[in-house]
Amino acid sequence: MNSESQSSSPIGAGGDAVVPVSVLNRAIGNMLERSFPLVWVAGEVSNFTRAASGHWYFSIKDAQAQMRCVMFRGRAQYAEFTPREGDKIEVRALVTMYEPRGELQLNVEAVRRTGQGRLYEAFLRLKAQLEAEGLFDPQRKRALPAHPRSIGIVTSLQAAALRDVLTTLARRAPHIPVIVYPAPVQGAGVSAKLAAMVEAANRRHEVDVLIVCRGGGSIEDLWAFNEEVLARAIAASDVPVVSGVGHETDFTIADFAADVRAPTPTGAAELVSPQRVLLLRDLDHRHATLARGFGRMMERRAQQLDWLARRLVSPAERLARQRTHLQQLSVRLASAGVRPVRDARARFSLVQMRWQRWRPDLTSHRSHVTGLAERLERALLRQHERQVARVETLAARLEVLSPQRTLERGYAALLDAQSGRAVRAPSSLKPGRRMTVHLAEGSADIALSDVQPRLTDGF
């Protein structure tokens, strides 16, 4: 221990110091936990006990020594298996001191079967390799046949799993023949023999589905089903393969390569075999449905036959009916030819009557027009007479107002020769000016030589 530990521990106070046992044990426990890190320890299980609290108590030993172990419930519940008396295991533990008894013990955090670490690493490597190649691709897995004609089993003849599978198949589907392809399931070179049986089942074409199975065991016992040769044979199989190896918690490479994984051999037998009782029950149901359908069809056919029989008549009766029908049709045809003519005549009479009603009376209209013509003639004559009288009146008035009549009374009209205007004032009369004089019997052009204007108020 370093100087700081010695100063804080009562044991380092002096050679004559007296310490309680509990303090000593606690100091030893602290020193052990600091001095020994987590370590894997291998040995054989003995005196295994599972307490009511869920903690595990056991010893791990070899030929020369043993060590007490404790695995608390928080760790034990995650263990992949429960150790049994005599199992070869490896524990990952911390060296501690059980202070009340002063006993050295291992506080276990993980447990595995002996050699499981190396085998598990090999398992993971092979699984990753085959998965990368696509051997575990769900797309390549096939569905199991619903009604196989025969079932194949690849396992050992002495295996307990074979008896379980055969018992299950005999109970569920005794009508399906079973072919066993014997091969050892444990030992050296077992994987190649199992693969050879899978290939033989494919060559013979005598089964519709194949079960590869064995009972449970340690990882070493099941290692034959983790070999690459068997995985490739299962993946290349044309027959659907069901893997039923070990217990529900056991996983092998064969499980991933197979089309379907069953948790146990018995589960594999249940997956590939339809239950005979259910098949018979379904058959009875289908038979009853078919019988009911057939009965209903016969009833419909009988009803249809009765209906056809009622329609069936003798040829003479049929001819008589047709003759009667033809007579009815001829009567209808005759009446159909007369009726349009009668209706047309009625419509013509109605139209003629309406036309007669609205036909104009030419005699009366002619008389009316003659009377109007006479009235128009008389009116025009009266208007003409009025116009003639008016013209005569206006002519008389015009005659009275005519300039010629004024000139005939002794007057003269004097006009400027250039402008043609009448000369009205004496101031307009200038010597040398040319003028035109209009008299009752004609006109004359004159030129003034001497003008003596004189203003008067009239004649």
Automatic annotation (TrEMBL):
It catalyses: Exonucleolytic cleavage in either 5'- to 3'- or 3'- to 5'-direction to yield nucleoside 5'-phosphates. Residues 135-445 form the Exonuclease VII large subunit C-terminal domain. Residues 20-111 form the OB-fold nucleic acid binding domain. Keywords: Cytoplasm, Exonuclease, Hydrolase, Nuclease. It is found in: Cytoplasm. GO terms for molecular function: exodeoxyribonuclease VII activity; nucleic acid binding. GO terms for biological process: DNA catabolic process. The keyword Lipoprotein does not apply. One of its GO terms (cellular component) is exodeoxyribonuclease VII complex. The keyword Hydrolase applies. Its EC number is 3.1.11.6. Belongs to the XseA family. Heterooligomer composed of large and small subunits. Bidirectionally degrades single-stranded DNA into large acid-insoluble oligonucleotides, which are then degraded further into small acid-soluble oligonucleotides. This is Exodeoxyribonuclease 7 large subunit.
